[in-house]
Each structure stands twice: as structure tokens, then as C-alpha cells.
Amino acid sequence: MSIQRYLVHLAYIGTPFRGSQRQIKGGTPRQHDPTTIQGMMEMGLQYLNPISDTIVFMASRTDAGVHALNTTCHFDLHRPVESVYEPNQLTYRLNKFMAYKEVPIRILDTKLVPDDFHCRQNAVSRTYLYRLIIGRHDQEKLNSCSHFMPIEEHNRAYFHCDSYFDINSMREAANMFVGFHDFRTFMGKVRDNDRLTRREISSIEIIERSKSEVGVAPSFSWPKIAIRNSGEESHSIVDIYFKGKGFLYKQVRRTAGTLLSAAVGRITLRDIKFMLEIPSKHSWIPKIRSLPGYGLYLCEIEY
User: Fold this and answer.
1) Paired strand residues for 130
2) Which residues of this protein are catalytic (predicted)?
3) Which of 33, 63, 194, 239 is labelled catalytic?
4) Best label site of 11, 47, 80, 292, fewest CB within 10 Å?
5) Is residue 128 part of an annotated ligand binding site?
6) In terms of DSSP bridges, do strands 105-113 and 235-244 run parallel, antiparallel, or are they unpaired?
7) Contacts of 236 (CB under 8 A, 6+ apart)
8) Do 162 and 276 form a contact (C-beta atoms < 8 A)?
């Protein structure tokens, strides 16, 4: 019998899933859970006929609707013979299974790792992207084009329409989050009162692009019939990249919502300072919206 640990890099579109973490608990043999990324990976590994149920460990937990461009997981594969699966063969077999099941999960790479390697604990940084599409329109003159965005961005970006949007205010607010802070205020739910909520955000990068730079075919993705009477500056795409070793539950989505609120003038820098200096769920300002999961991407995990 042989036992070998594998590290897998994978990407997925989170729209049809309830999250990355397995939802169905317990049971022997282990029950299938096709509604999560972990569940689909475990189902795929069953087709390799291991000696026992294979448990997949995800490097990062993502909520329902959140996407991943390059995340990781690891697992131990038990075989009844002394030989081990070649990593390239695992990549091929798992991708074949995902294609057969018609699910948006793709295996990018597979490699052998030491028995004491842990994809979550050994990670040195994680990079997330929150993607916004901003429509700049006078609220008194809203029309159909105000709420338009390319169909390929549906459930891939969060749309916000406002007559006022200041990218410099957003960047100034972002600078306040960089470094070590107690982010308890920005945590979606405190699951354990003793949980450590101090984290370090090493960088927040904000990139703004024009609508002509976005879309499968920009000249067709923004059809004139839908955005008539609107100029080149009517919409912009704002990508917010967060990099750090680890983040609290919903921290990135709530921080992105805070930055958006600062950019549209809903809150001030003083409000953000208050939430950072007095870390508590009671310090959260209700006028800030925690942004939905479908605009969030896990971009990379570094080791």
C-alpha cells in the first residue's frame, strides 16, 4: 500500500456552488456533496478507486458565488499498490471528471508534496480581487443605460450606479487598511469571542479602466442600442486587489463595500478611522453595504 500527499492548483466559477467548504457533515461512507468545490473534488477522487474515502483540505474557504482563478487544496491518496499516481495523470483524470459532470472547475496543476505540508497553514500570502462596474449618471436622469453592463459580467462583477464617484477618495481610504489592524469590525460574524482578529493587509491596489477595455469583444459587449446617449466616461471598471497572509470571514467583501462607500461620499475617512480604532461589531456603520460574493475572486495563494 502507498500513501502520498498531493497539492492541487485549481480554478472555478462559484456561481452554481454553495461555497468551497463541504456542507454535508459526517456519514460513513462519506456522502457526496456536489454543491461545493471540496465535495466535487472528493467525488472526482473516488473514481480513482482509493482504499478509503479521500478527504480534501481547501487552502481558503470561499462563500457561495465567490470565484477562484488559482487556489489550492491538498489530500492524501491511498493506493493498494506501491506505485503512486503521477501528478499529470491526476490532473487529466480530475479534469475529465469535471468535464463529464459539466461543472466549472478546472485543475491547473498537481504536484507531490511532503507528508507534513498543509495548503492552508503553509501559505504565506493570498491575493483577492473585488470587481466593480461603476455607472456614472445623475440620479434624477436614470434610464436603462445607467443599469447596463456586459452580459458576460453578469454574476462576475458588482454594478453600482451613482452621480458621484471619486477614485482618489477610494485610494485614500484603502491606505488606511494597509498594515496590522484589529479587523473585528469588518468581520461578517464573530464565531468565537476569543478568536484573534488582528491581521495584516500587505497591500491594496486599485486599478480603474474604461469600458472599452472590458468585454469579450468591447465593440459588441457595450451595444449602442443599450447605452445610447452615453459617452466613454459613462461607465468604468474598478478592480480592487487585496493581498495578505489571511483574512477574516467576509473581511474582503465588507472592506470593499467600505471603500465604495468612501468613493461615493456615503462615509468619511473619520468613519473608517473610528471602525479601525474601536474594533467591535457595534462599530460597523449600517449605511455601508457588505458587497455580494459574485464580485469576489481568489486570485492566488503563494507558498
Assistant:
1) 240, 296
2) 63 (nucleophile)
3) 63
4) 80
5) yes
6) unpaired
7) 133, 134, 136, 165, 208, 209, 210, 211
8) no
Considering the entire predicted model, what is its pTM?
Answer: 0.92
d(CA 294, CA 171): 22
Please indicate whether residue 293 or residue 83 has the higher confidence score (pLDDT): 293
For residue range 125-160, list pLDDT tens digits in order.
999 999 999 987 655 455 544 567 888 888 999 999
Q: Note if 33 is an active site residue.
A: no
Contact between 71 and 298 under an 8 Å Cβ cutoff? The reply is: yes
pLDDT tens by residue, 157-210: 999 988 889 999 999 999 999 999 999 999 987 655 447 899 999 999 999 998
Rg (CA), the chain: 22
Is the Cα dihedral 90, 93, 95, 101 positive or negative? negative
Q: Quick check: 26 pLDDT over 80?
A: no
Q: To which H or E segment does residue 219 belong? A: helix 218-221
Give yes or no for a contact between 107 and 91, defined as CB atoms under 8 angstroms apart.
yes
CATH topology of domain 127-302: Alpha-Beta Plaits (3.30.70)
